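Annual report, structural modelling task.

Input specification for the zinc ion complex:
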Amino acid sequence: MTREFVPPPRGVTVRGALEAELASAPETGLTAKELSGLVGISEKDVAGHLEHLEKSLKAGGAALTVLPAECVACGYVFRDRKRLSRPGSCPECRSTRIDPPAFLIR
Ligand SMILES: [Zn+2]
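The model returned the following structure:
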């Protein structure tokens, strides 16, 4: 079995910082936008880091939970969405007013 292992740089890694922020909000979770501001990375990079964090959490017996995005206009919930990023528009009513997914660690 081969494993990629990249030694973390000195100090706190982005993933470690994400994990700490998520652990501090176990009830409501945090959106990609909130995480980007808290950790200091761009919002579009959050999903990629979360995918890696999810793998390391699984190895430790925890799990990254996604509270699905929801359409503000009609209440449609994006339950089947696999990607961690925010959907562009609602498949039901075409509204772009989407309440973004939130992430938490359980
Ligand atoms: Zn809708």
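The first strand starts at residue 30 and ends at 31.
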